[in-house]
Structure formats: C-alpha cells, structure tokens
Amino acid sequence: MLGGIIGDICGSIYEWRNRKTENPNEIELEHPACRFTDDSVLTFAVAEACLGGGDYRNALRAWGLRYPDAGYGGTFRQWLQREDGAPYNSWGNGSAMRVGPVGWAFGTLEETLDEARRSAEVTHNHPEGIKGAQAVAASIFLARSGHSKDSIRTYVETSFQYDLGRAIAEIRPGYDFDVSCQGSVPEAIIAFLESADFAHAIRLAISIGGDSDTIACIAGSVAEAFYREIPGSLVRMARDRLTPEMRESLRRFRRDCMNAAEE
C-alpha cells in the first residue's frame, strides 16, 4: 500500500510537467513540492473498506469529501456530491490507482479479483475500468505470493489481453497523456517488470510522461509487493507529507492485512 502512495507523491510534480527522459536516474523523487493527490486519498479509502467489511462506496465518499482539494477528475467530483452514489460507467484509471490494498487484503487470487471488481464498479463499472483494477490487484497478489516477473507478465497478458511485451524505451517517444485504464495500466506494469528495484520502477514510470502520478502509483504498488524493500528516505519523505489520519490508516492496514498476508 505504501508503495503506491510513494509513487503518487513522487509523481505528483510531473503530472503536468512531464519529465520524459532516456535516463530515469535523472528524475528527482524527493522534490520539496511533492505531495499526495487523489490517488493516495482514494487508496486510503479502499484500505479502510478492506479493513471494515467492504463498503467501498461509503469509504470513497467519506475520504473524498474530507480531502476535497486532492485533484479529483470532474466526473468523480460530481459523484462525490450526488446522494444516489450511482456508478458512471468510467473506463478511467481511477479504479486502478486506488486498488492497491485489495492486492494485499485477501487470501486467494479469486477473492482478490472479485474484490477488485467490487472496489471498481461503485464508480468505474465500465468493463475496462473493472479490468484495469483487476489487473493491478492480481499483479500485486501474485508479486507478494512469490511469483516471478515472467509469471506475472504471462498471467496479465493471458487474463486481461494487455500487451506487456513492449519496452519502456519503445513506449516513451510517442506516449501521450492518457487517463484510460487501457492506456496507462499496461505501461505502469511494464515499468515494474523492467525495473531493478523499487525506486527504479517509480523512475521508469515517471520517465514515459503522461499521467505521471497515477502511473507511478500503480507501478509502485506492484513493486512494493515484489521487492518488499523501499528505501528509507522515500518512506520518511512520504510519511512526512501524510496527515496523522493517513499515517494511522497505514499502521492499521499493515498490522491487520499486510502482516497477515506475509505469514
């Protein structure tokens, strides 16, 4: 869970000022202006739902309304204000950016896929919105269960028909800002697959441009589950930028879900 939040924070300053570079090591991850965005807020909401019985709709609304200036898309902002809470058939990557906790909270791949669908469809009930969330959650589950990168790649390609055979260097030159699941989730997973460690995954994700905070959030979520080690400076940087409520949510989720998943 923390890996996705760190990706969001690190990528936050590059979303509207893309840093396309063939040398990802040039990308500064601990910029003073980095901050959490809607990706992190809604990740905490999904974590709360996982801890509290799966009421994704109410958790998303509660957290979203507590942090109204986090940078939500216009349609999600309207959804927050509506009393009926009806989904709006989105295929955007909002379902995938927030699903990280689901990949840790459940004991089987089948449960993970089902809960990823449930977490998505309260807003993103378009098939592509659901698919994006499931692909990310499944990648996290497989990574934390000890599967190899080749195994994760094969599963995602076979189950979700995402093309993960491309290289970041091939994607980068022609990549544009794309908030769809189908136009950003595969790229984020490729950044993880091509990475050498957690920080490298974040840098690769940012280096292609586009929706940088979300792509880095997704890549960081999977990278955390696979590498299990995040540089201490990035952990401290992220915690310093979170509210006390968020830090407590992280503590509870690690205690009740992530530690159990690692046993």
Model description:
The protein is mainly α. The protein has a single domain, classed as ADP-ribosylation/Crystallin J1 (ADP-ribosylglycohydrolase fold, Orthogonal Bundle), CATH 1.10.4080. The chain is built from 15 helices and no strands. It has helices at 2-11, 38-52, 56-66, 74-81, 94-97, 100-105, 109-121, 127-144, 149-160, 168-171, 185-194, 198-207, 212-227, 232-241, 244-262. The relative contact order is 0.19. The model has no long low-confidence stretch (mean pLDDT 96).
Q: How large, in whole angstroms, is the Cα Rg? A: 16 Å
Tell me the CATH architecture.
Orthogonal Bundle
Quaternary status of these chains? single chain
Low-confidence stretches: none
How many separate domains? 1
Offer a concise description of the structure:
By secondary structure, this protein is mainly α. Helix content is 63%, strand content 0%. It contains 15 helices and no strands.
Topology:
Blueprint lengths: L1 H10 L26 H15 L3 H11 L7 H8 L12 H4 L2 H6 L3 H13 L5 H18 L4 H12 L7 H4 L13 H10 L3 H10 L4 H16 L4 H10 L2 H19 L1
Helix pairs in contact: 1-13, 1-14, 2-3, 2-15, 3-4, 7-8, 8-9, 8-13, 11-12, 11-13, 12-13
Main attributes?
globular; ADP-ribosylglycohydrolase fold; single chain; mainly alpha; 263 residues
